[in-house]
Amino acid sequence: MRANVLFLLTSAFICSVTDAAKLNIPKVLLPLARSTKINFTLEATEGCYRWSSNRPEVASIEAVDVDERQCSHKAVLQARSTQPSRLTSIILAEDILTGQVLRCDAIVDVISEIQIESTTRELHLEDSPLELKIHALDSEGNTFSTLASLLFEWTVVKDAEMAGFPDSYNTLRVLRFAESAYTPPAYISEMERVGHQGDIILVSGIKTGHTKLKAKIQEAIYKDVGAAEVRLLILENILLSPAYDVYLLAGTSIKYKVQKIRQGKITELSMPCDQYELLLQNRVVAPHGNPDAPVANLDRSSSTVFALQQGHTNIVLDHKSLGMQGASRLPNSTIYVVEPGYLAFKIHPEDRWVLETGRKYEIFIEVFDKSGHKIYLSDNIRIETMFPTEYFEVLHSSVNGSYHYVKALKRGQTIIDGTLEAVVDQTGSVHALSVPVRNEQDVEIYDPIVLTPAILTFPWQPKEGAYQYTIKVTGGSGNFSWSSTNSAVATVTVKGVMTTVRDVGVSVIYAHDMRNPLHYGDMKVYVIEPVRMEFSPCVVEARLGLSLDLPLRIFGQLAGERVTLSDCSHFDMQVDMESYGVFQLLEGRLPPGPGHCSGVRVKALTPGYTNLLVSYTHGNVDLSAKITIAAYPPLKPIDPMSVAVVTLGSSKDMTFEGGPQPWVLEPSKFFRNLTAEDHSSVMLSLYGPASRTYSRHLVRATCRALGEQVRGALTVGNQPTVTNPFPAVEPAVVKFVCAPPSRLTLTPIYVNPQLDVSCPLLQQNKQVVPVSNYHNPELDVAAFDQQGRKFDNFSSLSMIWESSKVSLTIENYEIQFDPLSPVSAMLDLLLVEDVRVTPDTITIYNHPDVTVSSHICTQGSGYFYVNASVGGIADITFQESQGIAQVVPAQAGVLQVMVHDLCLNFPSPATATVHISDILEVYVRVVDKVEIGKSVKAYVRVLDVTMSRSPELQDTATFLVKGLVIGQTSVSAVVIDKNGRKITSAPQQIEVFPPFRLLPRKVTLIVGAMMQITSEGGPQPQSNILFSLSHESIASVSSLGHVKGLSVGNMSVTGVVQAVDTETGKLVVVSKDQVDVEVVQLKAIRIRAPITRMKTGTLMPVYVMGLTSSQTPFSFGNALPGLTFHWSVTKRDVLDVHTRHAEASVQLSAEHNFAMSVFGRSKGRTGLRVMVKASVPLAGHLQDSALELHDEIQIQVYEKLQLLNPEVHVEEILMSPNSLLKLQTNRDGLGSLSYRVLDCPDRAALLQVDDKGHLTSGSLTGTASLQISSQEAFGVNQTIIVAVKVVTVSYLRLSTSPVMYTSNREAVSAIPLGAVLTFSVHFHDSTGETLHSHNSMLSFSTNRDDLVQVGKGSSNGTLTVRTVNVGLTLLGVWDSEQAGLADFLALPVQHAIHPAEAQRLVVGDVVCFSAHHCSCAGASGVWSSSSSALLEIDPRTGAAVARDKGTVTVYYEIPGQLSTYREVRLITDPKVLMSTRSTGSNLIGTEHSTMALLHPESSVSCQLRFTSSAVDFSPHDVYHTHTAFDASTGFYSCSLSFKPMSDQQVKVLSLSMTEVEVRAGVQGSLFSGEQLSVQLPVSPGIYADQTDIILSNQHPSAELTIYGTAGALQQLDVKSSSPAIVIEEKEVSPSFPSYIRYTVRVVKPQGSLTASVSLINTDQYCFTFLSAHIVDGADGPNILQQFIDSYQVMFFTLFALLAATAVVIIEILLQSFVNAAVSAGVAKLTGSPFNNSMSSDTKASPRLRLYSPDYNSR
């Protein structure tokens, strides 16, 4: 009861934690105690509290773990009351922060009753100790919250009911917790330490028996409270075998065993024994039985029960020292004695009565009573079983006949008969049953199932279903179930038709008998890579015009052996012939047959032989087979064609042509046979050496008697050989005639004394015969008979030669004919040159594979014989048809090739010298990279002793080098000459690299969209991939693999990896791959929503797809000019639609909103609509240049199920199948936690949890309850039950972090460059709820990899994205095993640092960088520069000054949140100009007060120069210069002011008319550009060349000349201080030097006086005073003469610059001169900016500055 109460309280507490803080218990019931203090710990879930009690005398409260604020979250409650009555104290806990008050009622009352709690009343020996606990109640039956520290006395007392068992109280002992592995509450440990006992103890059994345990409170006030008692029974672990109820026949028996479990092992007790005995009890005799007789007897000595009569009785295992109460808990069973009802047959294995010959089976005969109970069959029953000997062989049978081990022998149907006949008693007497029990079993026996053939081997083909085969089956019942173990290799139909599929491997085809699945036949189908190819033995010679069938065998590797493939007719084989024109390849392939899987068919066209090569290449499989075949013309007589005519006694040398030639591979097997019809008339024989090719055959026929048409035959052929097992044999027949001659003809005779070879040229009478210019020919005579037939031989006649006529006489003949008339013959001769050979000298290598040819010149007769001067050095072959002598070297040396003309007589043959050299060096050339599993060619070259490479032998040999394992190795070529000497080449390094693959395998794009093709594998380090297109009009590809759709269509992109050939330096292809690209137009769109019904408060991603699954956002998300996506809902209050990244305060623009996030706001049904618009309809994004596309789906939002009364918050754990979750609680490490999955169907397959809180879901889906219990150290058990639901994942969703804060609190439209984002992947079920665990394997991809870097995050289910470049990237994430679980995002990246025009600066520019991003608290970030020497920046405000040229990076960093940057290029202006202000300024951005702290003016300087060479001092001697930067205007200024000048300096400047040239310089930079300057007028003031004027009567007037600039003179005012002196302007000269000349005269002479003349420059406030002296007439000349005599000629120049000097301010603006096209304009503006004289009014003068005319062009 107490555990249940705790559970309810804890559950109520946990369910409401989300509302407010609570105490762990609202009411506490504590017992009254005077000798000890009872404590209870109160604890709040959260907060810090001050604790108080309104009645501390009843119950006090004391805080524990008090912090510095004098508060705590838990306190100890202690019972203080001493009155034996129910008192209550209210405990209050006040939160020091919120002021919330928690209340707990502390009740102190006396104990009225105690009870002992126990989970069981039985103990087994050697079991773990049993925990007993006191349960106390008050008078109302309420349970006390704790009995901690209350003293109890536990005693074992004698049980009055067990008085007959004196040692019963010694069967149990009380244990201390310290003696066990149990962990008790802390107070129990403390009490045990001082020897006291508390409310919890441990007990364990010592020996079997009964015992009684009593507990009593030791407190004095509870002396009247009765003790709590519990009675326990201690037993041994005893088993009875068999333990189930047994059915026996009368007269049979069964033996029982008694077993004991001790130390984890089962041992058998020897019965009888001292402790236990078997008893038969409670017998019940069946009706009609003997009630006085027992049902069964027990033989105690053997523990055997004998059945006597029908009925039943109980067998009981009794303990001799226990009473009936204990005995009832010992093992027992019931024995039924019954009569047999029927027999049943069982067979093992499979329990099916369809058997197979040759198999062995176990057959059981079971006996059942009439109720269907199985009867135990003892050895003394007798069952007779009849097995037909024709069908079965009995191998073994049991004594009682219930078990038989048999073997099936013969096919057929038969019956097994079984009869229960008798029972044999103990004396051996047989008691037959009155009614024997009989049964029979029908049996069908079939032969084993055999599939033919046992093995089928097929070559792998890329085409699925390339081969089919119908499998033959014998044996079995005829009804089969077909199956294939590997359906990717081969499948089989219900009719046994096997079809190969697509994979390489083995598949076992099974035919299971439907009548008994245990019986089956199998055969193996191997689809293997072919490893070898050869031709089967066949006919290889064919007469011209006939065809040859060349069967082909292909082998595969099977279990280490090579096996012949069954069918290779679908092979795409390449057939080549070394010599074309000999045979013609016929269409089609030979069908598979015995001994071959395919073959080719050829037709003989021309005589000769050739090697036919069949090759097959696919992937890394490269097979070839070669066979030599020959074509021969039919054997026919040439000379004569049909009839040979000779004289009697003469012979005819007949010539036959054609027929089979000597087999080229074994010419020794060639034969020619001769036969004649009448050997007495004609004798036939072969004569003379045959031709080299045996194309002609010479037969000599000798006439023995006159006659007509005697037949002679020549048979030509080869004997069988390995390479020609079925040779061709050809016969030819000629008729032979003996007759007298009638006329003659002359023919030349060709005789070569060095050779035994005749000239094949046959000349007719009066034909031109070639003869040598240098040798005399020999002539022969031909004779013809009266029928015009030529005599083939008439050597038996005597002839007389004359110069003009020839007469004949017959020798050795009887004169039987009239004399012949004389005949004559004439012969024309053609003179020709002798034969010549070119070249006459040849050098070749001594290698058997090297051949060289010599061409025989077309002189001579045209009939030649070729041989060598020395044998053994080389083999020489003469190709007569081509006129070529071919030399194959055998050893080093020198020989001569000799060519003999067979039809010209000359003393010596034509010769050519051949030098054969040995090999000196071997060189191998191979590409240095090869893909694993593929091959490259290695070319071997050979050098001779002269180190010169022979053109014929540049590639002496070629080898295939195949990559096996990834790594690096070297390749060398080794040549062994005939002397055994090894010549090794230098090793060539080669790398084996993994397969090169392009990804993705298929790309679908719309027109204008782009996706990058990446690669994996390939050589490392990988060189650039060269991309090519199959159709350049459909798509384009860049060097980075960026594929952009141009027009609708399908094409492919091929990527090639190249390497450099180390010898030639040329690029060779080492690997390539191809992907398919489909460019489409969007016909329609659809909204991809994983679910359409979602709970309120759940999130779901949606995105736009095309019509097909391949048209993902990757296909159109980045198209240019682009699409815009506009989303809306029909009911705003049901569904909220947000852009992706909205949780990070990023608000994407419409062109990036192909994916959105929807939030279930409130219940209802709404439509989600998307509209896709083409910004430029003619761009072809949408089909038919549509303006927009629409789609809409309906989404139902429903409320989550909640419990309203009581109002508790119910949660559940969601897991995907086969996932793991580590549970954590707030009591981890504090309490003893245990986890348990409550009983439910398929619990193990659904959910499992271990003792450490690892929760594992199985493969099934469903819901289970998880119980979590915490055993606290203060004696409280807490338990919660949580529902765990295992559901499938319906969709995944990406969320973005961190949040992008801005100073204006507005969302940004793009991700700042340099930001690092973390994307968390959330998995949701079909309702939208988020799963707590999953087992998904995530994959991700981007449409390009040059803008962002994506990687797996630190935790499972997260991705980290680092932005590295500006632009748009599309990100896709999906489950590798479930492609439908996918999400797509747009990642637009932009600069966060402004202004944009600051990307390119000129040295001297002042920039105010700004960024809207800030920290979450609104604080701005910190600015920094990668180089302060180039760009100095204020870290707080971002104000910066460009100091020097170069490239620098500006950083803006918000610690812990964002680090963005921008690259800035700093240049110097190639032209520095000066002019009036008309364009922009050097201030970039907005003005800031901190600019002055950077002192930007230190970056520029002013340089001065006088334009006139008459000025011999520096401008810096008379000018002060000062540079400044005006932040309000953004201009640099250079202020010029005069220093105090000497009179000489003023004079020089006034008279020289010079200008000062001002140039702007940049500090700290090596300036190499053109510096243009501005020239300013110099205005030092006015200058007069007189200081005194003397006037008299003789000289009443004088001239005064004032010099100065034109502007200064215009403002000049001349006045006199005396009216007696008048000043008049006389002359003005504006040209250089400019001056004004005045006339000073006296108008009213008044005697001597001195007056002053004032020269006033109103603009400069310049005052000059001159003295005018008037003297009397008498004294005038004297005084004047004295003055002249005294001073000679004196000029006093007085410059009184009483006001401020002229200040010229030159504003300097530095800007890069970018556009050279405006240079002319610059020159025009700056050529002479001050053509007119400047006015002395400074207010009217223009301000001057340096500027760049192209500043605003950026």
Automatic annotation (TrEMBL):
Record-stated family: Belongs to the NUP210 family.
Compartment(s) where it occurs, according to its Swiss-Prot or TrEMBL record: Nucleus membrane
InterPro entries hit by this protein: Big_2, Ig_NUP210_13th, Ig_NUP210_16th, Ig_NUP210_1st, Ig_NUP210_2nd, Ig_NUP210_3rd, Ig_NUP210_4th, Ig_NUP210_6th
Protein name: Nucleoporin 210
Position of the signal peptide: 1-20
Residue segments, region Disordered: 1732-1754
Short name of one Pfam family: Ig_NUP210_15th
Gene3D superfamilies in the record: 2.60.40.1080
Membrane topology: Single-pass membrane protein
Domain BIG2 intervals: 992-1067
Keywords: Glycoprotein, Membrane, Nucleus, Signal, Transmembrane, Transmembrane helix
Spans through the membrane: 1689-1710
Principal place of residence: nucleus
Record-level GO cellular component terms: nuclear membrane; nuclear pore
Organism: Sinocyclocheilus grahami (Dianchi golden-line fish)
